[in-house]
């Protein structure tokens, strides 16, 4: 059974930092795609960052480039999202996702999802 367990969300002031973690189990972690998505109330789920665990190539949404970094620890089957210079508009539920044939930012392409972790940024 595939499990993606997120952690690290919380509340911070604008300009602050958070690091999200996503631990994967029951799933072929290597040479696959894992991503972070977010969904704010009333908005569609959007891709934030994606990583190909086989080679480390990454994708970032324009809105987070230069502020967020996605990384991996293959020994722990874990993907991280380091979020710096947070803005109020980053407030959302953040979800970890895994296994996509495209390794892109379109959320319907992903087969497995975590339960989500809330990130709230106050001004």
Topology:
Blueprint: E1 3-7, E2 10-13, E3 18-25, E4 33-39, E5 46-52, E6 58-60, E7 68-73, E8 78-83, E9 92-98, E10 112-113, E11 117-122
Parallel strand pairs: 2-11
Antiparallel strand pairs: 1-3, 3-8, 4-5, 4-9, 5-6, 7-8, 9-10, 9-11
Key phrases:
123 residues; mainly beta; seven-stranded mixed sheet; four-stranded antiparallel sheet; 0% helix
Characterization of this structure:
This protein is mainly beta. Helices cover 0% and strands 50% of the residues. The protein has no helices and eleven strands. Strand 7 and strand 8 (78-83) form a beta hairpin. The N and C termini lie far apart (40 Å). The relative contact order is 0.31.
Structural class: mainly beta
Which percent band covers the strand fraction?
over 45%
How far apart the termini lie comes to 40 Å
The largest sheet is: 7 strands, mixed
Tell me the number of strands.
Answer: 11
Q: Helix proportion of residues, in percent? A: under 10%
- Average pLDDT number: 94
- Uncertain regions spanning at least 5 consecutive residues: none
Give the overall shape: globular
Q: What is the number of helical segments per DSSP (H or I, 4+ residues)?
A: 0
How many whole angstroms does the radius of gyration measure? 13 Å
The topology string of helices and strands comes to EEEEEEEEEEE
């Amino acid at each position: 059974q595939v499990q993606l367990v997120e952690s690290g969300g919380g509340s911070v002031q604008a300009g602050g930092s958070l690091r999200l973690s996503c631990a994967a189990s029951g799933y072929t972690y290597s040479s696959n795609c894992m991503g972070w998505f977010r969904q704010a109330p009333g908005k569609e789920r959007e891709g934030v960052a994606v990583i190909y665990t086989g080679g480390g190539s990454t994708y970032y949404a324009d809105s987070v480039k230069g502020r967020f970094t996605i990384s991996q620890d293959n020994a722990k089957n874990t993907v991280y999202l380091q979020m710096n210079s947070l803005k109020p508009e980053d407030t959302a539920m953040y979800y970890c996702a895994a296994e996509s044939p495209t390794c892109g930012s379109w959320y319907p392409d992903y087969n497995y999802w975590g339960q989500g972790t809330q990130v709230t940024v106050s001004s």
